[in-house]
Design a protein that fits this description.
Layout: H1 3-12, E1 17-18, E2 21-22, E3 31-33, E4 41-43, H2 48-72
Length: 76
């Protein structure tokens, strides 16, 4: 079984999905199609890169919102 077949088998395994989140250490992809592929992509939190992306989103989005609000609010 090659890595592409392993990735596909892992993606199809319902045990690797929880509330729309995907976690598989055997699947080498960082970004994988969602369970319903036409809905887009999701992170594989079983990979180091996937976890780093998630941490980046969790930290980066609030910082972006704070900077955006600060830039658009007039100074007294």
């Amino acid at each position: 079984m090659n890595q592409q077949e392993i990735n596909q088998a892992e993606w199809q395994n319902p045990d690797n999905w929880s509330v729309g989140l995907y976690f598989s250490k055997k699947d080498t992809r960082t970004w994988v199609p969602k369970q319903i592929p036409w809905m887009g992509w999701t992170l594989n939190l079983g990979t180091r890169a996937g976890a780093i992306w998630m941490i980046g989103f969790l930290i980066g989005i609030p910082i972006f919102i704070i900077l955006l609000v600060a830039a658009t609010c007039p100074m007294p």
